[in-house]
Design goal:
The protein has 202 residues and is mainly α. Helix content is 68%, strand content 0%. It contains 10 helices and no strands. Helix 1 (10-32) crosses helix 2 (39-46) and helix 5 packs antiparallel against helix 7 (123-150).
Length: 202
């Protein structure tokens, strides 16, 4: 039931607090490393007690998975938005989507997705992670197939394998990228995607 006079409901307040916890944790995991950030540090950053965090997370690993889900949703949304960009060919849409993907993954609150997540997965977490990655793979497979169909990509490409190869190449950016480097994310995205797509163009 919506509160009167525009005041947020208890659930809306709870959701807002959860988003703030995830935002704070994502930034600290991304910039300092998951292993270097205790829950106490996140609580201190937010100005709350560690006990208060346990109203929203069951453990540090649970918080990491909440951050992961938000991050993957952000990646998927960025690719879907890029796919809607007006362009003459599917190859051009693929380029835009890949560059957007790389720029998004280099955000300071995103790098934990590549550096920390795999060693910490529990069996149930693995299903959630794989579902998100399958969604991204399906988006890129569809663009690859569109490129084959419109002649802007090589006719002999196999979308499943081509998607695995090109995503394997660009995903490494999330591991080696450092914000302190000399190149901006967009510059890196253009260079990496250009090289990754070169063998795919018709």
């Amino acid at each position: 039931m919506k509160a009167i006079s525009g005041f947020p409901t208890k659930q809306e307040l709870r959701d807002h607090k959860r988003r703030e916890i995830v935002r704070c944790a994502s930034e600290k995991f991304g910039t300092e490393g998951y292993e270097n950030v205790p829950l106490d540090a996140i609580a201190a950053e937010l100005g709350v007690t560690k006990a208060a965090l346990y109203n929203y997370v069951s453990s540090k690993n649970d918080l990491l998975m909440q951050c992961y889900e938000v991050g993957m949703d952000r990646l998927i949304a960025s690719v879907e938005q890029a796919m809607d960009t007006p362009s003459d060919t599917a190859a051009e849409r693929l380029r835009i989507a890949l560059e957007t993907y790389v720029v998004t993954m280099t955000r300071k609150d995103m790098q934990y997705l590549w550096n920390d997540i795999r060693p910490l997965l529990a069996p149930g977490d693995k299903r959630s992670v794989q579902t998100s990655r399958d969604k991204i793979d399906s988006l890129f497979r569809a663009m690859l197939q569109d490129g084959i169909d419109d002649g802007s990509l090589r006719a002999d490409l196999e979308p499943k394998l081509a998607s695995l190869v090109i995503l394997g190449a660009v995903n490494w950016v999330g591991i080696w990228f450092r914000a302190s480097g000399s190149k901006k994310p967009q510059e890196i995205a253009r260079a990496v995607v250009s090289d990754a797509m070169r063998g795919y163009l018709a």
